[in-house]
Write a structure and sequence with these properties.
The complex is a heterodimer of chains A (639) and B (74).
Chain A (H helix, E strand, L loop, with lengths): L1 H28 L6 H25 L5 H28 L2 H15 L19 H20 L6 H7 L1 H9 L16 H12 L2 H27 L1 H11 L3 H7 L5 H20 L5 H16 L3 H18 L4 H30 L8 H4 L24 H7 L14 H5 L12 H18 L10 H13 L6 H24 L5 H5 L4 H8 L3 H10 L5 E4 L10 E4 H8 L11 H7 L4 E7 L10 H8 L4 E10 L5 E9 L1
Parallel strand pairs in A: 1-2, 1-3
Antiparallel strand pairs in A: 3-5, 4-5
Chain B lengths: L2 H8 L8 H14 L14 H22 L6
Classes of the chains: A mainly alpha (639), B mainly alpha (74).
Amino acid sequence: MLESLTSTVAVASIAVAAFGLGRPLLRGLAVGDDDALATGVWSVALGLVCVATLLAVLGLAGLLYKPVIAVLTLVGGAWGLVELVRALERQRDSRPLERNRDTRALERTRGSRPFEPPRDDGLLPQGAWLPYVQLGVAGLAAAGALVAALAPPTAGDALCYHLELPRTFLREHALVYLPDSDNCTFPLLIEMCYLWALALDGGVAAQLVHWAFGILLALATTVMARPILGKAWASSAGCLVLLVPGVTNQMTAPLNDVGLAAFTTLALAAWWRAAVDDDDSRWYLVGGLVLGGALGAKYLALVFILSLAAAGLWLWWRQPGRRRQMLVGTAAMAVIAVSVSGLWYVRSAWHRGNPVYPFFHEQLGGQAPPDPGDGKLALGRNPLALPGAPWQLTIFPERFGGRGHQLGALFLATLPGLAVCRRLRGWGLLLGISLVYFACWFLLRQNVRFLLPLVPLALVGVAWFWMEWHRLPRLPGVLVAGVTALLLGAGLFAGVHRACGKLAVALGRESRESYLLRSEPTYRAALYANLVLGEGAHILSQEHRSFYFQPRFTRESIYRRRTAYDQSLESASTLSGRLREAGFTHLLLAEAENDAGVRYNATLSRLAEADEEGVRCLTEYRFCDTDGAIRRYRLMALR
Amino acid sequence: MIAPLRNRLDDPAASERNEPLEIARQIVAAALLPPPPEKPAAPRVPAWQAWLVAAWMAVVTLAYGLAMIGWWRP
């Protein structure tokens, strides 16, 4: 319990420090202070972008030391507490008249001038109970994800690089280039937040950071939807975020898709206020900062920018009187976004010769990327398959990156219903942005988790359908309500179900070590390696999950692609000597013993078995995964 | 004579300028202006369209449920 508490306090410190550092920036920009929710969301988001970028700069300068990060957290945290106390005092002392004025100002800013938001002209008003019910249901799903996030991380991609890279950077005190890690030159802004958490606590705190990004995404959706749906229904859209199975799934693992979605949603919200609402040009500056955060989180943000640019061009064409203002604002937004995220792209170009390695190799040159394989485009690139894609990815998400990341059936079931709803001003623009993004997704990478940036936009449509629900005749209306309740129940179940098997470790009734021994395939080998192998050990591994290994660890598949060592061996018996010369001391061999799940390339196993004299088995075990896959691990010493 | 009053009521920015004066203005306007006309009820969705939407939602939910419990595979 104490361990869970420590991790939670570490993440709370990060949140308060981010608020403390982001709040003065927001105040300086003089926008976003609509109410406590908007102030909190914008401050935390800006603070996270600034601190993560600062950590990256420290990494480039070789100054990534835990004391430096601790001081940064202390200063930010102290200032954040001061800001919180000031905000509370201001709220308590504000007179009723001033409150009325604030409310009126908010009502006015809610209104999109080119696109008036819906008034209460025959729309379904929210009953007194609905906000509490939706908050309760979303809270339950978030609580389920929180319990799962309090268990030590075991997600493959997280152990392979989302946590492994920041751990390595922290150990080396710098953003080092790792030739045998394809991911080390990716944009790593979210991983810088994990580095922050690793410096304060460990892997669980890093995992909780992504859980917190899920909450930020829900709040960002509320902020983004307010000018379109009004305050009450925007909250509904925000709560619905936490009932999307793919979101709660990501909140339980330190990946980066939810973090990206939070930043793209806020970038859209800021751009909307500036370009669509014509509210205040300074929103372009805020938009530039959070868009920089999105670009620093993942290359996928470039696709979102393309969609946003298409919407901007449409507005620019429709509103000739505002063209100059829009052009200047968009240019400012772009310059800020590039300034914030540029270091990641320059770093990639420096090391790989391609700013977006491993993509667009044919056009931009640089290092040859690994073969993406056919699995990335389950439907191919035939445009005729595009209209059927929403059905396919909803019903058969396992073809698009796995069931865990699925979006659920709420969108496919509800969004076509908008055809019978009245026109919502602003929805056409959101739909346009979504369609451009979806078409790019179809052409580039058909993985369902890459659609998470569209979730908040689609939820605006879902909420609008609910607002129009009362216009349906009684019987079909009851059927629609029943089916919607079923789908929301499925979303809630997905969130709560993730807590199964993890409650004991979250509450401290099971030790983290014992949990890892039964849940993480590599943990036993890692324990052995950490206890027995010396400091100079260097493992060449067929398994990519390296986070729990303390000795140096190199992925065999990438090393083989870079050096083609297997091609240059005179005979199998020379393997040991060849690898020793390259600096390796041990091998971690991994094999799948059935067809249930994971697959490993067998090159190293085959060569090691042929070189009996050159290798010695230190430990061997089998691990049965939850999907039924049986893995066999052998840790071998090179003689 | 009452046009400026109506315009003021329609202009949300005007309400911020002087709060007591604004309240007084609203009282005078409420006394002089006729009550606002009843808003027309939102038109109902035609029954066939509503049934189409409901049927689509039911089909998607059924297909999704069957696929999730493994009774329908690609």
